[in-house]
Amino acid sequence: MSLPQDVLGYIFSFLNPEDLGSAAQVCRGWNSTSQLEWVCQNVARSILDLSEPSQGTWKEQCLSLHRWKMWKPLEVPLPFSSVHTLEEFYVLLEDTTALEVVRPDSSRQSLFSVRNLITHEELRQINVQQYGCADIFWGAVHGTIWTIRDLNGKIFQFDIKTGECINQFTGEAVQDGQSSDIYSNDDEIIASVQNRGQIWDLQQRRLSQTFTIGEGEELWDIWGTCSTPNFVLCLAKKPGSLFIFAVNKKDPRIQTRIEVGFGAKPNTFKSHGSYCSLLIQGELHVYEDTPDAQFQLVRTHRVQEVPGSWDGTVRLYRNWVCLHKVDTFCVFDVRSGKEVISLKKNWGFEVRFQVNAQALLVIHMVSDTFGRLKSTMPCLYDFSRRVQQKPSSGWCSFM
Fold first, then answer.
1. How confident is the model over 187-211, as a mean pLDDT?
2. % the chain with pLDDT above 90
3. Is 369 part of a structural domain of the chain?
4. C-alpha closest to that of 68 among 49, 54, 47, 51
5. In terms of domains, do 19 and 151 share one?
6. pLDDT (average), residues 183-195
7. Is residue 234 located within the same domain as residue 92?
8. Would 364 be classed as within a structural domain?
9. Which of 47, 239, 295, 397 could lock 246 by a disulfide, CB 3.0 to 4.6 Å apart?
10. Residues 38 and 150 grouped into a single domain
């Protein structure tokens, strides 16, 4: 006696993508059940916390995640890139589109070109000077929104899909020798100078909060900022050690501090949703902004340390923590602590990457003999296999 399809589908919902694919080959009835959207939705969401498919249907999303776990992407080698300054960067969109934002003319520091990284076609230009932006001091990218602060403290937001300036704010000017950082997400901009921070509410387009780290104590320097729903997170230094400060957004006077020591790697201080990461002396720490508004350590992951090696690169994407260190790339699920994938990948000494549900964009940084960044070699791994245009001759892969 065969099971009703809804009961069989409920059972299939607990399978991983590989086992669901195997079940689909048993008979026509099982094949039909395995392709139900709600079954594929449950299987996909057991791996990645998605409210909806990043593109296409749940069945297509489930297949992309299966390729992730089995490491079966379409590898798209890309040309050498001229991205080599702090103001130039890459963007990986959810539909696997990869963009680069570069200066087309080094003599015009305010002009930037937005290009498709696969076709190398220029899509638009952005002249930040026409909006009153002085020399760029620092910048941050979230999705397609580029947030920059100039030397006068003014803050600008540009949508790189349209080239338009969508927000302008007046912040604190940065003096020579002062530490500074800027962070943005869909809801806010956080800017810091020395031990002082400002929060701009992007929904109401106004300055909503100001705060001081370690007020009343010896001077702190904020080395990095990020955010979770309830906290502004600051990686702050004072003589002798490094600390994470979790600043309560409702009442910035309430600050939780966690000493992490100088073994912490500031470039791995990242956040996404409710999670925050930091690599500390060969161990990746993941903190969570809990439902009851507490900030606490929830996961640790041991990482190979090699003397003289690159600090490592960490990216958080929903419930995934992605890490490249030395010659290993791994992804683990912060909810369970289980590895999604772990493999040996010798991508070079200094590697950066961007990740989403459909693709992985890896950037190998190439330096000259003096350690100065000379060029970058990107490669796109497309797990959706939607990228149609192949690179032309002369484009190369570093893999």
1. 93
2. 48
3. no
4. 47
5. no
6. 93
7. yes
8. no
9. 295
10. no
